[in-house]
Design brief:
56% of the residues lie in helices and 0% in strands. It has eleven helices and no strands. The protein is globular and about 50 Å long. The N terminus and C terminus are likely disordered.
């Protein structure tokens, strides 16, 4: 041992002071930037369907064919199935010898018509609907649809008996009553009243669609007429939706009740 290393006598040994250890500090997260408060955009009411033309106006009874065929194509096979069912059951008693079969065919045709209206309304919104869903709509609204069909038929028949002329005014005002049953879940009298009120001022357009249907029916003697008639079936549905949009943008107008017809 070197003498320099020895402690001085009489001097107590000094304790060694450990070097202070610094604990590593965890990194502090950066303060989050305040998020600006955004007010949610107000919900816009959904339109009844896509417009019937580029400018939203009625293109005419012939001009609506392209749009009607596009609506039918959305659920074309289901539409074809219900048309075939209507055709088959309406022909059960062609000679009208068995009233029971005629009644059965009429009852089934109402169910099929309600289901087809549901399909056309769905197709106008580019929504697919299978057979079971359309059939369920027809069954759900069947009682109201049946009563609406009978009452409308009686009113139209009475208008024919009244020297025929009133028929041309009554028919276009009631032809859309079943659409209100399916689309608006209305009862029979409410649906008839709504059809009578909303179709005021649109009778010419209704007769235009009926006239094109009659023309295509005449063309059914050739195969091309069957195609045109089938693809044109949604035209009345598009006219119904067009009238709904027009009425939604107009103030309520008082109208005479159906009972005064």
């Amino acid at each position: 041992m070197n003498p320099q290393d020895e402690p001085n006598p009489g001097t107590p040994p000094q304790p060694e002071t450990p070097a202070p250890q610094t604990e590593p500090q965890a990194p502090q997260p950066a303060p989050e930037a305040p998020t600006p408060e955004t007010n949610p955009a107000p919900e816009q009411p959904a339109a009844p369907s896509a417009p019937v033309s580029d400018n939203g106006e009625w293109p005419g009874a012939f001009g609506i064919f392209k749009r009607a065929s596009a609506v039918v194509k959305v659920n074309v096979w289901t539409v074809l199935t219900f048309n075939l069912l209507t055709l088959v059951f309406s022909g059960l008693d062609r000679d009208r010898k068995y009233p029971v079969l005629t009644l059965v065919g009429y009852l089934i045709s109402i169910w099929a018509q309600l289901a087809l209206i549901s399909l056309y309304l769905a197709g106008a919104k580019q929504e697919t609907q299978d057979f079971s869903a359309a059939a369920a709509v027809g069954l759900k609204r069947y009682v109201d649809g049946f009563i609406t069909s009978v009452v409308s038929g009686v009113l139209i028949a009475l208008s024919i008996l009244a020297l025929v002329v009133p028929f041309f005014f009554v028919m276009p005002r009631l032809v859309m009553a079943l659409y209100y049953v399916v689309d608006k879940d209305m009862g029979p009298m409410d649906a008839i009243q709504a059809s009578w009120h909303d179709s005021k001022g649109f009778s010419g357009k209704v007769w235009g669609v009926i006239g094109v249907v009659f023309l295509f029916a005449l063309l059914c003697v050739v195969l091309v007429g069957i195609y045109f008639l089938f693809m044109y079936q949604a035209a009345m549905t598009l006219l119904y939706l067009y009238i709904q949009r027009k009425r939604a943008n107009q103030p309520a107008v008082a109208d005479a009740p159906v009972a005064s017809v």
